[in-house]
Amino acid sequence: MKTEALDPRYRDLDRWPTELTVEAMLEGQMAAIAAIQSQTRAIAQAAEAAAVRLGDGGRLVFVGAGTSGRLAVQDGAELHPTFGWPTDRLVFLMAGGSSALTQAYEGAEDDTAAARAEITAAGVGASDVVIGVAASGRTPYTLAAIETARAAGALTIAIANNAGSALLDAAEHPICAVTGSEVLAGSTRMKAGTAQKAILNMLSTAIMLRRGLVYDGRMVAMRISNAKLLSRGRDMVAQIARVDADTAARALETAHNDIRLGVLVALGTSIADAKLLLDASGGDLRRALMALEARD
Predict the structure, then answer these.
(1) How confident is the model at residue 105 (pLDDT cuts 50, 70, 90)?
(2) CA angle, 106 as apex, 104 and 107 as ends, to 5°?
(3) pLDDT tops 90 at residue 108
(4) Which of 3, 108, 149, 266 has the fewest Cβ atoms within 10 Å of its own Cβ atom?
(5) Is the pTM higher than 0.85?
(6) CA 49 to CA 182: how far, in whole Å?
(7) pLDDT value of residue 7
């Protein structure tokens, strides 16, 4: 595996001046991002397929072990506050369990029986989308989870850093960023991890875009949980509805801090009617605004 190979350029890394080692690591990080360039179509196709498959009740299931699993959980955990994606439509399967997020569990990544049992216990089925992440592309836990999920009818997406690996072959939508040898041999939390993080960010964001949870480049479905986000939400309502700050603030309060509903209320719609419009539009503000315009 290229991710495990020793790059002879860095054989004496421990003897280099610290600034040179940092420069080498930065070069590696930049190369990791460049490695994703060839995968933009694969990411887009996976996102489009996932957005359709999720329908009205499908779940996003993130699977991984070690660094890859932690990155997957981190990305998925951001979807509720950023896009309002329901927490009951998120499943996290981490080799070794949730405690493995903060400490290593030796042997957990090899437990294929646990992976199969967890996919089955989660009731993964045809409406779900399962995203498996593994730098090597052959982590037994992640591979078993993807195979079991696909057999159960779920849409499967694999993210790996070694071409031709078993995980990529097992999934319907393989995404492979070949990051090669690490500056520190085998430390895939570095280049491989950076590429995985970027891919996960792009994939999940593209899914949310296709689900209609973004309007004019704004996070209109985000959860307002603090003063900073309240101010941002008011600004969005004011800008989208083209109303003054006071009108936007009142509309958002009437909408119980739901920005999409706040926009509709600011445009003169009652809260009850706004809810009906948004529900009929599947939560897509653009569709709701078009329906409102057509009705007027």
Answers:
(1) confident
(2) 135
(3) yes
(4) 108
(5) yes
(6) 32
(7) 82
Burial of 262 (0-12, 13-18, 19+ CB in 10 A): buried
pLDDT at residue 135, rounded to an integer: 95
Q: Which residues of 115-124 are buried (b: 16+ CB within 10 A; e: fewer)?
A: bbebbeebeb
Q: Which of 290, 288, 257 is nearest to 84 (CA)?
A: 257
- Which 8-state DSSP code applies to residue 162? S
Active site residue 27: no
Q: Virtual CA dihedral for 20, 23, 24, 27, nearest 10 degrees?
A: -160
Task: State percent of the chain over pLDDT 70.
Answer: 100
User: What is the number of residues in the chain?
Assistant: 296
Q: Is the Cβ–Cβ distance between 175 and 146 less than 8 Å?
A: no
Q: Which pLDDT value is given to residue 5?
A: 79
Q: What single-letter DSSP state applies at residue 59?
A: -
Residues linked to residue 64 through DSSP beta bridges, in sequence order: 94, 133
Q: pLDDT digit string (tens) for 154-212?
A: 999 999 999 999 999 999 999 999 999 888 898 899 999 999 999 999 999 999 999 99
Q: Could you give the CA distance from residue 40 to residue 27 in angstroms, rounded to a whole number? A: 21
The tokens of 52 are what?
A: 């359709």
Q: Name the burial class of residue 22, with classes exposed (0-12), middle (13-18) and buried (19+) by CB atoms within 10 angstroms of its CB.
A: exposed
Active site residue 78: yes
Contact criterion met (CB below 8 Å) for 83 and 109: no
Type of residue at 176 = C
Catalytic annotation, pick one of 109, 118, 147, 182: 109
Asked whether the beta carbons of 142 and 167 are under 8 A apart, the reply is yes
End-to-end CA distance of the chain: 61
What is the pLDDT averaged over residues 266-283? Answer: 96
Closest CA to 207 of 59, 93, 32: 59
Quick one: pLDDT at residue 4?
A: 82
- Quote the CA–CA distance of 136 and 160 in Å, as a whole number: 6
Q: What is the DSSP secondary structure assignment for residue 99, as one 8-state letter?
A: G
Amino acid at site 221: A
Candidates 19, 78, 182, 293; catalytic one: 78
